[in-house]
Amino acid sequence: MPWIWLLLAGAVEIAWAQSIKPTDGFTRLPQTLLCLVLMCGAVYLLSRALQDLPVGTSYAVFTGIGTVGAVLTGVVLRHETPSPVALAGLALITAGLVTVHLGTAD
């Protein structure tokens, strides 16, 4: 179950990352409130995972999911174009996340 909490935290972090830009520098109240709710939700879910997983592992996976997910959703939703070098970096991050998961006892 802790890995489920961590995956959910990462998914909410992706949504949170995408919710920042529409706040327009935190000048748009509804968008800012959504951003804050998503931020709190991501941290809450991360805290649930931390009940059973090490902090270092959890935070590395959480931020890795957020990084890869934010880039990929940026590509899909905002038509952003990462460079080939950036894509290689994302592949390395993904490989690292899988490696960390495989190397962690549940």
Compile the SSE list and pairings.
Elements: H1 2-20, H2 29-49, H3 55-78, H4 84-102
Helix pairs in contact: 1-2, 1-3, 3-4
How would you describe this protein?
With 106 residues, the chain is mainly α. Helices cover 78% and strands 0% of the residues. The model has no long low-confidence stretch (mean pLDDT 94). The protein has one domain (2-102). The longest helix is centred in the middle third of the chain and has 24 residues, at 55-78. Helix 1 runs antiparallel to helix 2, helix 1 (2-20) crosses helix 3 and helix 3 runs antiparallel to helix 4 (84-102).
Question: Radius of gyration, Cα only, in angstroms?
Answer: 15 Å
Anisotropy-based shape: flat
| Largest sheet report | none
Secondary-structure content class: mainly alpha
Measured by DSSP, the beta-strand proportion falls in: under 5%
Low-confidence stretches: none
Order of helices and strands: HHHH
Total E-strand runs = 0
Count of separate structural domains: 1
Residue share in helix: over 70%
| Number of alpha- plus pi-helical segments | 4
Residue-averaged pLDDT, rounded?
94
The end-to-end distance, rounded to whole angstroms, is 9 Å
